C-alpha cells in the first residue's frame, strides 16, 4: 500500500511508557525491531540510550519518552525500536509498543492546540476511531539532541554572475517546522534573496495572492510537503489551478527521501523536489529555479 495517495497520510501508531498515543508518517519508518543490545557512549546526550549495530551499521538509539519530556524507559531492552530515516539521517526511537498502521486525510490533521508551547514536539493532531492521535515532530526531537551546525556556504560555489542573478529575487518559504524554517531562511539570506516565511499552506496562498495583486509576485515558492490541513501536494494543485499565480515556480523541500517523492511531486505540478537539509543542494536548486525563469 502506498503511504501517500492523494491527500491521504499513512501513520504508524505507537505508545510510550505513559500510555500516550502518538503517530509518525509511515514514509519515515524503515522498520520496527525488538530493542537490541546497546553500546553506551561516553558523554552521550541524556536522551540517547546508546548505539546499536544493525546489519553492520551503527544506529543511535533515542529514548523517545525522555526526549519529549516524559519519564524514560527503565530498561534499555524494554519496548521496541522504530527505525526512522529522514533528512539524510537514520536513528532508532525506543518506544513502549507499536499498535498499527492507519490512514487519514491531511485535511483532518489540525495544527497543535494554541498554548502547546515550544516543547510540544508535535506537528499536528487528528482523531482515529475516536481517539486523539498526536503526530510526532521527529525533526524537532532530533534537533534538540544534535543541533545541526550551520553549513558554511563556499564562496566558490556560485560565480559572481550567479550571485547577481539571485540577489533580491522574491522567495516564499512555507514550513510548519520552526527548525526547518530557520535553516532554510539562513541559506536564503546568505544568497541575498528577498525572502518571506509562513507556517501553513493557507498562509502561503494568501501571500502569493497578495504579492501578485501588489505587482510584486513571488517568483519561487519553497514548500514543505508534510503540513496540517493542507499538505504540499495539495498546495501545488491549488496554485496550478489559478490563472494569476499558476506559473509560480515550486520547489518541494522535504525531510523524506526526495527520490520517493519525485514522481508524486511532478504529477501535481511541482517544478522540483529536494531532501532537507543541505545548504549547498538548496543553493543549487534555487539557482536552477531562477535560471529557468530568466
UniProtKB/TrEMBL annotation:
<dbReference type="InterPro" id="IPR011006">
    <property type="entry name" value="CheY-like_superfamily"/>
</dbReference>
<dbReference type="GO" id="GO:0006935">
    <property type="term" value="P:chemotaxis"/>
</dbReference>
<protein>
    <submittedName>
        <fullName>Two-component system, chemotaxis family, response regulator CheV</fullName>
    </submittedName>
</protein>
<dbReference type="Pfam" id="PF01584">
    <property type="entry name" value="CheW"/>
</dbReference>
<feature type="domain" description="CheW-like">
    <location>
        <begin position="8"/>
        <end position="147"/>
    </location>
</feature>
<dbReference type="GO" id="GO:0000160">
    <property type="term" value="P:phosphorelay signal transduction system"/>
</dbReference>
<feature type="domain" description="Response regulatory">
    <location>
        <begin position="170"/>
        <end position="291"/>
    </location>
</feature>
<dbReference type="InterPro" id="IPR002545">
    <property type="entry name" value="CheW-lke_dom"/>
</dbReference>
<feature type="modified residue" description="4-aspartylphosphate">
    <location>
        <position position="224"/>
    </location>
</feature>
<dbReference type="Pfam" id="PF00072">
    <property type="entry name" value="Response_reg"/>
</dbReference>
<dbReference type="InterPro" id="IPR036061">
    <property type="entry name" value="CheW-like_dom_sf"/>
</dbReference>
<keyword id="KW-0597">Phosphoprotein</keyword>
<dbReference type="InterPro" id="IPR001789">
    <property type="entry name" value="Sig_transdc_resp-reg_receiver"/>
</dbReference>
<dbReference type="InterPro" id="IPR024181">
    <property type="entry name" value="Chemotax_regulator_CheV"/>
</dbReference>
